[in-house]
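Repro:
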Amino acid sequence: MNQTLIFWPIFAQVLLTFVAYLVMSKRRIAAVKAGEARARDFEVPRDPERSATAARNVANQFELPVLFYVVCLAFHQVGAVGWIALLLAWAFVAARVAHAWLHMTSNIVMLRRRLFIVGFAIVGLMWAWLAVALLTMAG
């Protein structure tokens, strides 16, 4: 299998992070223009609710996805990229896109939490699958 295929879900996750930044910036500018906030409100964030959800989502993109990036790079480094690793990687990105969409739109906390747990479980499975691959290579 082409080991570089693992980089495509990484690119997708990075793109999601860029989109979250764009949404946050757009909402912050709109809040200032609408008089809901002043530019100095963002020195120590006191975002209005709409931009606060986007700002929090940006922060989320640097939490759980860090474990995703590391495991993807580890799969590539040890030559263990296979269909299962790719399927899990894309499933993680899909869960994160759904989580981000929900977070920045309706922000239904219980549903958002479920989507987070799905992504959390998937990245956990990725690490377990990497351990299996390493054990297989060692034996």
